Amino acid sequence: MIPLDFTPVSTLMTISRRLAEYGWLPATSGNLSLKAPDTSVWITRSGADKQVLAAEDILHMSPSGMILAGQGKPSFETAIHLAIYQVTDATAVFHVHTVANNLIARYGTHGTVTLGPHEMVKALDHWEETAQLHLPVLPNLLDMDQLARRIVDRLDPKVPGILLENHGIYVFGRSPALALRYLEAWEFLFRWTLESRLHDALDRLLLLNNRI
Ligand SMILES: [Zn+2]
């Protein structure tokens, strides 16, 4: 039985507006989903403007990808959401394209990007003082079923996210609030890491020219 406080449509609309206000869902990109206690999935439809997401922009689907209710096409990347639900205990999967998550993927070595140590790592449930997180990075593919299989192979239960080169990030959590916290923490770490590199490079350049 679905608990009375499970409100997938309003939850997705609220989270969508928040992420769109950050500028993380540009040009109708990105997709968001929630898994119900009965294992069915609520997901944004393809091409929806996330800033003004309406109830009719959300489809109800079976775990195997059959549309149970709603009009229009589900997100092009639905197969990835369903695959993540199959192999994790997540009940929320959020996917966004940002300049920072695309840039940070360029710094991957051996298929991972290393982030931290930084206080923000705690928001990703790692409490060791010098914790570093190794976020998996995969090449992007147009074949969603193949991409979904590769993502499942690379998922690390201790690292709630996976990056796709020249594309974006998938983040998942045991609740919508957790997935949102993880996503905000990842994006903070990406910007911090990128800006730190830029400042370091600038310092080196100024030092080289005897300006500092
Ligand atoms: Zn995408």
From TrEMBL:
It is an enzyme of class 4 (lyase). Its EC number is 4.2.1.109. The keyword RNA-binding does not apply. Pathway: Amino-acid biosynthesis; L-methionine biosynthesis via salvage pathway; L-methionine from S-methyl-5-thio-alpha-D-ribose 1-phosphate: step 2/6. InterPro entries: Aldolase_class_II_sugar_metab, Aldolase_II/adducin_N, Aldolase_II/adducin_N_sf, MethylthioRu-1-P_deHdtase_MtnB. The keyword Nucleus does not apply. Its cofactor is Zn(2+). GO terms for cellular component: cytosol. Belongs to the aldolase class II family. MtnB subfamily. Catalyzes the dehydration of methylthioribulose-1-phosphate (MTRu-1-P) into 2,3-diketo-5-methylthiopentyl-1-phosphate (DK-MTP-1-P). PANTHER family: 3-OXO-TETRONATE 4-PHOSPHATE DECARBOXYLASE-RELATED (PTHR22789:SF0), FUCULOSE PHOSPHATE ALDOLASE (PTHR22789). NCBIfam families: salvage_mtnB. HAMAP family: Salvage_MtnB. This is Methylthioribulose-1-phosphate dehydratase.
